[in-house]
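Notebook entry, structure prediction.
Reason for the run: the old model in the group folder had no record of what sequence produced it. Starting over properly, with the input documented here first.
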Amino acid sequence: MKKALAILMIFALVASVAVAEVSIGAWGRGIFLPVNSGPVNTVTDTAPSWGGWGGDLARIGFTIAGNSDNVGFQVDVTGENMGLGDQQKIWVKPMDMVTLQLGRIYDDTLRGNAAYGSFNWYRGLGNGDGEDVTFTRIGFQDSREGFEVAVAPMDNLYAALYFYGLEKDLVSAMFAHMQFALGYTIDGVGQLKAQVYTAEASRKALDADEVAEGKIAEVDDMQTTIEIAFNYTGMENLFVELGFKMPTNNDVLTKVTVQGESADVEEYKKIALYAKYNMAPMTIHFSSINQMFKAIDTEVLYKVIAGLDYDIGDGVGVEADVSYTGVTIDDVDGIVTFFAGAKKGFSNGVIGAGVQVLNDGSDTSFGIPVRMEYWF
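New structure, fully documented this time:
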């Protein structure tokens, strides 16, 4: 009897999995650096692409997902430390054009993506600007308490409203922790995108005159940021996207990073461009990122990146990029990076090796990255 019950339970489990379409997928990437020479010392290291100078483990991730016509879930797990990965969410489609999501959510439907060259290798010695460059993903706030309503009433139109940080009362959450994005595709031309999002931020410090007048500085305030972008796809093999970003409250500070040091600045604006042209077996990439802000005077932090992919055939390819980051602040040197590498692709992964060099005007760092990546 017990054996019969066990068999029935197994059949029931298999049947439920088949109906619910529960699947397991996986993605991971690791960089082995037999040589990793920095301004302080030389070390051997392993890391994901986004790691830096020890302490980060290679990404060994997997996903368990359930999908049906109207209901599903997704749980991303980081196997290297048995932690939670990017998303843990429930989604429901009450009707074809509406999707509701609850949990930790990333929605990359409209996201700007310029991932090429050293961004896919070791960013600590190369270009760290590849995703969200021209248009920020929905859910970038990395909240584990999010709720999204996405609507696609037609193929050309997509809109999403996202709330996060829901531990506060409803009104505060709606106005202080909100992201609304909209994208419209023009057939044969490209896509126009716009979004607005809010977040808590610090106000600027009071100056001496304001202190003398007895004014009191506000520690926290709400910042509203707007972004617009347009990508052009009207020419075969060419993709170009231009994006603009600006906080609307100049009294609230925005963080920028100059030479590895973060600073709180005012009157922040960003203009970014990404272009890609494919003429097989070669693909050319170009990015330009300009961040304007007020520190003491109005300054510009600018960066240009150029990259090249070449497909040799039989899964073998070579990649290279070079970048320059400069700033108009006096006595701050520019940063130059160079990368070149070769890789061999398989049905479910990649292996490759290369060389990366970074010079910040006074010191030169270099590394020999060995890249291993899988997807299932």
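Summary: Confidence is low (pLDDT under 50) at residues 1-19.
The old model has been moved to the deprecated folder.
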